[in-house]
Amino acid sequence: MKRNIPILLLLALISCISGFLLSKGSWLGRIGMGIFYKDYTFLNIWWQAAVVMFILFLLIFIIHSVLQRTLSQAAARISHIIALLVALAGLYLTYHDFRHDISHRLMGERFHIGFYLFWIGWVLIAISFLLRKKVAIEINRKDEADQ
After folding, report:
1. If we measure between CA atoms, which residue out of 69, 89, 87 comes closest to residue 129?
2. Distance (Å, whole) CA 143 – CA 19
């Protein structure tokens, strides 16, 4: 558990920065969001956007953690690599969408960077699990005999 604290603190920091940047969309973009995309108005309040980002990071972290514990080392490594590739593809597709969709382009660069930080956080999670070695669980034979 102690080895998870630094990455979770980094994800919390990225969530706060991302939430702040998402709340700083352009004036025209925020008006459009308020009129046409009412489901996303929570992004206008920095702490709500940060909480949503952190919850998403926690879900991704938990999924990686479960995969790390339940799969063999080779299968876990493959799943983390696949997740890393998905995150990198998401980063590219988000960049492409923000450059070619007029309604997203109007939101402004700070808003865009907030979403890029989400994908970067996912990349960091995948890399952190790729760099970990699978911990072998030792079974004490004496405790088994007692049961």
Report:
1. 69
2. 49
Pairwise CA distance, residues 92 & 44, whole Å: 24
* Residue range 37-79, pLDDT digits in tens: 667 677 778 899 999 999 999 999 999 999 999 999 999 999 9
| SS3 per residue for the chain | CHHHHHHHHHHHHHHHHHHHHHCCCCHHHHHHHHHCCHHHHHHHCHHHHHHHHHHHHHHHHHHHHHHHHHCCHHHHHHHHHHHHHHHHHHHHHHHHHHHHCHHHHCCCHHHHHHHHHHHHHHHHHHHHHHHCCCCCCCCCHHHHHHC
Contact 111, 62 (CB under 8 A): no
Number of structural domains found in the chain: 1
pTM over 0.85: no
Domain coverage including residue 26: 2-146
